[in-house]
Amino acid sequence: MICVLQVGGSEVPTSFVSVEAGKMVKTRNFVEGDSSLATKAVWDDELTLMFCELCVNEVNAGNRPTTHLNSKGWENVIALFQAKTQKNYGKPQLKNKWDTLKKEWRLWRELLKESTGIGWCPLKKTVDATEEWWAEKIQENPDFKGFKKKGIEP
User: Fold this and answer.
1) What does the pLDDT look like over 95-109, one tens digit per residue?
2) Whose CA, among 13, 31, 40, 55, lies 20 to 30 Å from 153?
3) Apex CA 22: angle with CA 18 and CA 25, to 5°?
4) CA distances in angstroms from 5 to 15, 31, 65, listed in the order given
């Protein structure tokens, strides 16, 4: 729970509170700009690939019974990711990346659905198609525009 203070009609977070043994316990003060509250996840291609490989391993190990990893799967991914990268990313950052990648993959599949006569540009890692094809696709869904300059690894 976050405690707030009313300041000039605005609510300002002051501390985080948890409930332990039925009692409310102040766990930490909120300091604006305190990066220890949540590490900003910065992703590059190498970190993304490592994260994907760890997730695939957990899926193959049976730790994704439905549409997302179970608790054991997330624990394994978090521990291994932190050990391999020395990045202190917790479940919120990793789950956000999972959701973002899933959304991008679905959009990518939609872009390529029923497409024929197109190629692949290894430099841009995206579809090599005519300007007309791209214009038609972007008109169909403006979110496709991002894939014109840089795609995803298929």
Assistant:
1) 999 999 999 999 999
2) 40
3) 35
4) 9, 13, 42
Beta bridge partners of residue 129, listed in sequence order = none
- 98 contacts 55 by C-beta, under 8 angstroms: yes
110 φ/ψ angles, rounded to the nearest 5 degrees: -65, -40
pLDDT at 17: 41
What DSSP character marks residue 72? H
Tokens of 144: 């496709």
Distance CA 37, CA 16 (A): 10
Strands 126-128 and 119-121: antiparallel
> How far apart, in whole angstroms, are the C-alpha atoms of residue 138 and residue 144?
5
Match 């959701």 to its residue by tokens: 99
Q: Cβ(137)–Cβ(144) under 8 Å?
A: yes
For residue 111, the surrounding DSSP H or E stretch is helix 91-112
